[in-house]
């Protein structure tokens, strides 16, 4: 069975675009999707394509993003309300998203919660924040930017038993992934005048903005920052522990993929530790060898007999391992 079997041929171009966005921008995540049953991949790509396009608008030119995001939200509302999207790039993504939403009965409120959190990244908007004082404040942001991503995925992945049991672990996994990104990307975010890690936790270890900028500019390490990051990594791992039991509540066919993503994202935290917590100076990476060693057995169990196999869309799996 191929990724696009059972999907209206008129939507194939839309789903292919979403898949390409996932392949191009989310190497670790895309690798995990290759382990999903083919029938579930298209919907996952559609969710990713929508989030990716919105996120890029906010990240590339944040000062100009508010009116663009307003326009995209109107187009989203029209599309979910039954008005066919146009055939520009975002319109194609919307076509795939609407089809996925209808097929899996995904609540529309999740998309609007996501857009609300994206507005918190846009200077000049009422919701804008470049700093988060407490973990509770950050959790408000992460609900829309991360937790709802996990909740959107549940109907696509499939659940054994009551959906309510799986919702809290799914939301926790989204938050754990995003906190991992915040730790890994601390230096890049600082360059954008963003500090996502709670400032009260940093302050408890005597870390302030002056110290962050000093370390970023000079490349020097500081034990105070290392201790703060060690604490935040421990906190993030505690959220992974809340999330992990939810994997066993999913359709058995998707568990290998989710386990792969779970392990590889957790490895980012280990890479931060092994680098000496140098997140202000370099991006912690999980090696290609490690990604392969984790993914290969699960690829095999999912029916991949060789990493040179090709999907129905004609893309070799080898490049998914990244650099």
Summarize the biggest pleated sheet: none
Helix content: 55-70%
* Count of β-strands: 0
How do the SSEs run, as a string of H and E?
Answer: HHHHHHHHHHHHHH
| Total of helices | 14
Rg estimate, integer Å: 20 Å
- Which overall shape is indicated by the principal axes computed on the Cα atoms? globular
List keywords for this structure.
mainly alpha; 323 residues
Written account of the structure:
The structure is a single chain. This protein has 14 helices and no strands. It is mostly helical and 323 residues long.
Structural topology:
Elements: H1 12-25, H2 27-33, H3 38-60, H4 65-80, H5 89-104, H6 109-119, H7 135-157, H8 163-184, H9 186-191, H10 199-204, H11 209-218, H12 223-243, H13 255-274, H14 288-301
What's a concise summary of this model?
The chain is an all-alpha fold. It has helices spanning about 10-25, 25-35, 40-60, 65-80, 90-105, 110-120, 135-155, 165-185, 185-190, 200-205, 210-220, 225-245, 255-275, 290-300. About 65% of the residues lie in helices and about 0% in strands.
């Amino acid at each position: 069975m191929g990724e696009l079997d059972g999907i209206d041929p008129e939507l194939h171009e839309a789903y292919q675009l979403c898949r390409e966005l996932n392949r191009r921008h989310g190497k670790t995540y895309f690798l995990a999707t290759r382990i999903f049953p083919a029938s579930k991949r298209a919907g996952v790509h559609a969710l990713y394509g929508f989030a990716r396009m919105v996120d890029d608008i906010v990240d590339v030119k944040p000062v100009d993003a508010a009116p663009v995001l307003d326009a995209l939200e109107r187009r989203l509302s029209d599309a979910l309300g039954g008005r066919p999207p146009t055939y520009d790039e975002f319109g194609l993504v919307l076509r795939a998203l609407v089809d996925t939403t209808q097929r899996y009965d995904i609540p529309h409120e999740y998309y609007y919660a996501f857009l609300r959190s994206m507005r918190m990244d846009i200077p000049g908007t009422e919701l804008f924040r470049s700093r988060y004082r407490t973990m509770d404040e950050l959790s408000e942001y992460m609900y829309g930017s991360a937790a709802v991503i996990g909740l959107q995925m549940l109907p696509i992945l499939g659940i054994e038993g009551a959906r309510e049991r799986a919702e809290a672990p799914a939301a926790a996994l989204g938050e754990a992934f995003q906190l991992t990104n915040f730790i890994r990307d601390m230096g890049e975010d600082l360059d954008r005048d963003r500090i996502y890690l709670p400032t009260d936790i940093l302050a408890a270890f005597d870390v302030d903005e002056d110290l962050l900028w000093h370390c970023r500019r000079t490349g020097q390490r500081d034990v105070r920052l290392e201790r703060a990051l060690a604490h935040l990594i421990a906190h993030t791992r505690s959220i992974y522990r809340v999330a992990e039991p939810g994997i066993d509540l999913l359709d058995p066919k998707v568990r290998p993929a989710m386990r792969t993503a779970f392990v590889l994202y957790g490895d980012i935290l280990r890479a931060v530790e092994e680098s000496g917590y140098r997140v202000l100076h370099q991006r912690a990476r999980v090696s290609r060898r490690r990604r392969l060693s984790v993914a290969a057995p699960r690829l095999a169990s999912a029916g991949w007999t060789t990493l040179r196999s090709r999907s129905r869309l004609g893309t070799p799996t080898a490049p998914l391992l990244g650099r």
